[in-house]
Amino acid sequence: MAKKAAGTPATVVLTTERVAHALHPYEVSPDAPNYGALVAEALGVAPEQMFKTLVAEVDGALVVGVVPVTGDLDLKALAAAAGGKRAALADRAAAERSSGYVRGGISPLGQRRRLPTVIDDTAAGLEVMYVSAGRRGLQVSLAPADLIRLTSATVAPIRAGAS
């Protein structure tokens, strides 16, 4: 029986597209409060560089929002950036089904069904950002421009408190 490759759909995309990236394993309980901040701490990374991937429903259609772990997703701003009126966080099962990933490991890359993606504008000012590599316990660092290109993302202020 052939051994399954250790890669995830996200890392396969990065390798196939020849995008410079690095993988960063960590150990943090996915049920821990302030999960993203704990992951940043475990990796010795500034929390402003660590981003979480959230799946939301905008006017009934699924949309991906990528925001710093230091804050929350502004659903109204996400709806506006996605050209809609109303947004709510997607049901966990719907998010996992459409992405092919489990909560705590949803990556904006390599999703089962490619969804419109909006990345918070703070990413654009960074040299390197971190997002889930497609499973709990694994982050990937890459240039924000590469993530934006690979996901055909819109860049907009979608974190809560952005002006």
TrEMBL record:
SUPFAM superfamilies: YbaK/ProRS associated domain. The keyword ATP-binding does not apply. The keyword Nucleotidyltransferase does not apply. GO terms for molecular function: aminoacyl-tRNA deacylase activity; lyase activity. Keywords: Lyase, Protein biosynthesis. Residues 39-150 form the YbaK/aminoacyl-tRNA synthetase-associated domain. One of its GO terms (biological process) is translation. Its EC number is 4.2.-.-. InterPro entries: Prolyl-tRNA_editing_YbaK/EbsC (IPR004369), YbaK/aa-tRNA-synt-asso_dom_sf (IPR036754), YbaK/aa-tRNA-synth-assoc-dom (IPR007214). Belongs to the prolyl-tRNA editing family. YbaK/EbsC subfamily. PANTHER family: CYS-TRNA(PRO)_CYS-TRNA(CYS) DEACYLASE YBAK (PTHR30411:SF0), CYTOPLASMIC PROTEIN (PTHR30411). This is Cys-tRNA(Pro)/Cys-tRNA(Cys) deacylase. It comes from Actinoplanes xinjiangensis. The lineage of its organism: Bacteria, Bacillati, Actinomycetota, Actinomycetes, Micromonosporales.
